[in-house]
């Protein structure tokens, strides 16, 4: 007498387990970082451009602003703010518009991957690149230009200003990605906007020397406040008198950057698309 094994029913618990949401987020973050560092243009313009600007401006504009502060010491706050803007706003707006245009976003939206994983990966990429930019700029500033680093509680201010600024600019960059008609026009759409912000926000010049109407326009956007907050940790308190309000206004810096985080999030929810118009 022979016996037969009962047939294994489908759905009897032998299917492979689905990956956890944490592992999906981690995998997507790794993919985003690999894709960024494999794109030579992104690395050059996002990572190396701030370094080049610091090197050139630090060598050419070597003069004293008073209180024993060199222009390079003043410029360090602005170039870090500009580096954060490049890693977040410019990088997000251009890369997402390109991925939308070439069908990458449409493909990702059609996979089982949670859509939130895409945004988590982008945020991790921005944070990693931002930290790399800050570390490289500070290293070059200290070694070649004698920059005085923040001390004590100034590091805490440095951290929250950078984090809030990066968050606000990342969300704004994601929203701006929807303005470009396609990936090819993204750089032409976003780069002029970012350059104008840098010129009127006290990145390349002392903010007090910029015309009042430009200061007013700059005060609408997060870069001005990020640069102002970072100046507070690199410059002596005596130079706060050169700011429009005569103080560093750190409370207002936090408020404006936080408001831009909320505004940016709302704009993302309202405008983000997974494919180009007409597809």
From TrEMBL:
Q: Name one GO molecular function term.
A: ABC-type transporter activity
InterPro entries, A to Z = ABC2_TM, ABC2_TM_bact-type, ABC_2_transport, Nod_factor_ABC_transporter
Biological process GO annotation list?
A: response to antibiotic
Write one Pfam family the protein is assigned to.
Answer: ABC2_membrane
Q: TM segments?
A: 43-61, 73-98, 119-145, 157-176, 188-207, 250-269
Domain ABC transmembrane type-2, by residue range, is 41-275
Task: Indicate where this protein is primarily found.
Answer: membrane
Q: Does the keyword Transmembrane apply?
A: yes
Gene Ontology CC terms: ATP-binding cassette (ABC) transporter complex
| Alphabetical keyword list | Antibiotic resistance, Cell membrane, Membrane, Transmembrane, Transmembrane helix, Transport
Superkingdom assignment: Bacteria
Compartmental location = Cell membrane; Membrane
Please give the PANTHER family that the UniProt record associates with this protein: ABC-TYPE MULTIDRUG TRANSPORT SYSTEM, PERMEASE COMPONENT, NODULATION PROTEIN J
Q: Which family does it belong to?
A: Belongs to the ABC-2 integral membrane protein family.
Record-given protein name: Transport permease protein
